[in-house]
Amino acid sequence: MSPILVFSVIAAYFSLLILISYFTSRKSNTETFFTGNKQSPWFLVAFGMIGASLSGVTFISVPGEVGNSNFAYFQMVIGYLLGYFVIATVLLPIYYKLNLVSIYTYLEKRFGFYSYKTGSIFFLISRVIGASFRLFLVATVLQLAFFDNFGIPFSVTVIVTILLIWVYTNKAGIKTIVWTDTLQTSFMLLAVIISVILIGKDLNLSFTEIVSEIKNSTHSTIFDWNWKSGTNFFKQFIGGAFIAIAMTGLDQDMMQKNLTCRNIKDAQKNMFWFSITLLPVNFLFLSLGVLLYTYVSKMGISFESLNGFIFNEETARYLQTDKLYPSLAINNFSIIAGITFLLGIIAAAFSSADSALTALTTSFTVDILGIDVTKESKETQKKKRLIHLGFSFLIFIVILIFKIINDDSVINMVFKVAGYTYGPLLGLFTFGLFTKRKIIDKFVPIIAVLSPILTFVINYYSEAIFFGYKFGFELLLVNGFIMFLGLYLLSIKSLVNRNVDFKL
Predict the structure, then answer these.
(1) pTM here?
(2) What is the per-residue pLDDT across 128-137, written as a single tens digit (0 to 9) for each?
(3) 318 beta partners
(4) Domain assignment present for 502
(5) Are 28 and 175 in contact (CB under 8 A)?
(6) Is residue 115 a contact partner of residue 431, using CB atoms and an 8 Å limit?
(7) What are the CA-CA distances from residue 195 to residues 148, 202, 351, 363, 478 (Å)?
């Protein structure tokens, strides 16, 4: 694709986002930014959350990783269903009952000041890293498709990318995001469907032949029953369930959208429909992965032309699999397919990054500074803008660091990091919900730091200690259990506040 064409596509897309921002920000106030005035239609939130949960990681990394892990990722997606059921039936009723703006306020009501601050800080760390991973993907694609042609450095690409997000989320925040996520989810799903159709056309395959090609591929194996393997079904399923609980139910970013619904029933309908829809959507992304590898094989495309995507003979694994889809789309696919991909990756990445920036601003404003965002004031507006800008800069720095150290598929990196950073949150909320014990609040930050450290040590020596057992994404569960155990050892039987009902 020519750089002018790429620029035109990007400019048109963001013009549309800014137009949506203009209409949604009219008559907005501080509360609109943080809660959307609790007027979001549930079906709009549900559809938009598909794009936010999938993000650029799913759009690029999941198809690319098919070459190494086949359809093993789908085992985790099945586990998501259990996790989302827990969120809808256990967590959401509590959040609505306590009328929370930030979900970490629950920790203050249940345990105290130090637990509250610990939970919010771990979220801030987790989401800054996660959002940076996702934006790193789209910045890399934009660099390859446009900025490299003019000798513009990667750092400038990142600044432009983040600035565009800041522009359309700065005023109305979560209200704008609910609507822009709907648009971005539509573009993302259309992109992957059109990509499948056009790849099939290039390979002279009918719809029936496409289905047959995917079904008969060695890469379409879903279930792994080897208990020592990192992709074993039970590890993936259990890991998926707890990843969903931690990275959605205990995550301000994802829950902030749910809390903009009018009432608990609407929020639960949103969660149920959202979880059901994710199954076919993720299967579609995995199917695209099979077709990408088939395309490379049948079209005789050399690895040298794919910008670092290679096959390592020693490990029998593909390296830098995140480069496969964008390289093919930009350099090998037709113009229509290339434009479709570009729109899809921008939509996928920004649908998660924009809400992450708003959630980070919300958590820091409410949890760290203790500002009551339901009360309108010029001082609150000023602080909100400064915090919003500050997190934009922080994400910029983290992306540059990630570019230096990245040596793995981003889909794996995101979940590896989540296993360590979301574990203390999982342990804290689980202890609060399922016990009536009072903890020694001031020791919670120490336990929260020690928990991921011990988890790392266990994971590092796991094969030697557990007779060849290799941890997968269920490492999050190990981390959460260590946190839970630490809290239990430093607790007594009675509740902190018997006047507050923390359980269902």
Answers:
(1) 0.77
(2) 887 787 778 7
(3) 311
(4) no
(5) yes
(6) no
(7) 24, 10, 20, 38, 39
